[in-house]
Design goal:
The protein is mainly alpha-helical. It has two domains: about 1-310, Rhopdopsin 7-helix transmembrane proteins; about 325-359. The protein has helices at about 1-15, 30-60, 65-90, 100-135, 145-160, 185-220, 225-260, 265-285, 285-300, 300-310, 325-359. α2 runs parallel beside α8 and α4 crosses α5. The longest helix has about 35 residues, at about 225-260.
Length: about 350
């Protein structure tokens, strides 16, 4: 499994590292990653599948903000669909069992949809910022059609940034990693690093800017205690927390590894950091699992439909009702129903008796 670490060495140390391609490095992440990815895949398919069902068949009419939420759900769902190939890859002991074309498509799907998720989260934060801080701006009155055109334009950003994955040439076709590539494509490696960092730090700065200005605007106008604006504040905080928790660890880890590799290293010193790096990369997919929470808090209509949909499967007690009272209440309903049936039977029996007596 040393090729994984060797690929990272190539991407950082350049041609000097080619003599270390067969370095016997171990990678213990193959044990940890499959259970994590399987869990993310199942939860992501259920959560985003339900979200897409609600957006497509239940939620009417759409608003411009709904378009952004829908596209975020699409990016998350497409990313989750690419995870089974990674699960198979790690279960096989870091051995790619499919063609190189399938490998490139898989890497493109992961990179493009991961970047797309960050940019659509940024757009959602900007949308909420405009509605709270600049409520009378014309952009808040965009039609659904214009919002769709804007969303399509936003799709071009992650696609353009990650399409270079198709040009990467792998040294060893048994691996499927975006860093294990021929040193001749050094320009692509630099671009790959840039897009990896840019797709996190640029949206992060925008989201933090929107958050701070929303908070300061609500405090300045003393609106933070009103229910409508308090929900907007909770929503933007949820976006910030999810974004940082899911994407910050991998970006810190990869920066630390690149710095350490540029200073020279031994293979044994990089085994644990490499494992941590791949685990943190896999943690970025949790964002796609948790994004349905964003839909739930951002749209009251989505929240109501989600509750009704789940209500068909699970009977939920009211907010004021303790869980311990559910069983007694059900027994009481059954008792009253049985008593009503008995009373109906008694009335019918009396009427029949009176009819026989009259005859």
């Amino acid at each position: 499994m040393g090729g994984v670490l060797s690929g990272l060495i190539l991407s950082s140390a350049g041609i000097k590292a080619t003599r270390n391609i067969n370095m016997p490095c171990n990678f213990s992440g193959a044990v940890v990653l499959p259970p994590l990815l399987v869990t993310e895949c199942i939860l992501g398919l259920v959560g985003n599948g339900l979200a897409l069902f609600i957006f497509c068949f239940q939620l009417r009419p759409w608003k411009s903000s709904t378009v952004l939420l829908f596209n975020l759900a699409v990016t998350d769902f497409m990313l989750i669909l690419a995870l089974p190939l990674r699960i198979s890859y790690y279960l096989s002991g870091i051995r790619w069992r499919f063609s190189e074309a399938v490998c490139k498509i898989s890497l493109f799907m992961l990179a493009m949809n991961r970047s797309g998720s960050t940019f659509f989260l940024m757009a959602i934060a900007l949308d909420r910022y405009m509605r709270v801080v600049h409520p009378h701006h014309p952009i808040n009155s965009l039609s659904v059609g214009k919002a769709m055109v804007g969303a399509l334009g936003l799709w071009l950003v992650p696609i353009t940034m990650t399409v270079h994955v198709f040009s990467l040439q792998h040294i060893n076709t048994t691996y499927c990693e975006s860093f294990i590539v021929d040193t001749k494509t050094k320009g692509n490696l630099s671009w790959h690093k840039f897009t990896f960092l840019f797709s996190f730090y640029m949206p992060l700065l925008v989201i933090l800017y929107c958050t701070f200005h929303i908070i300061s605007h609500l405090r300045r106008r003393q609106l933070a205690h009103q229910a409508k604006f308090r929900k907007a504040l909770y929503f933007i905080v949820v976006v910030v927390v999810l974004f940082i928790l899911c994407f910050l660890p991998s970006n810190i880890t990869v920066l630390a590894m690149w710095i350490k590799m540029s200073q020279g290293f031994k293979c044994a010193d990089m085994e644990e950091p490499t494992t941590v790096f791949y685990i943190t990369i896999s943690l970025t997919y949790i964002n796609s699992v948790l994004d349905p929470v964003v839909y739930y808090f951002s749209s009251p209509a989505f929240k109501n439909i989600c509750r009704k949909t789940l209500h068909l499967t699970f009977r939920q007690p009211s907010e004021c009702e303790p869980l311990g009272s559910v069983f007694p209440r059900c027994c009481s309903l059954c008792f009253r129903y049985s008593r009503r049936r008995i009373n109906t039977f008694q009335i019918s029996l009396i009427k029949n008796t009176e009819a026989l007596h009259d005859s």
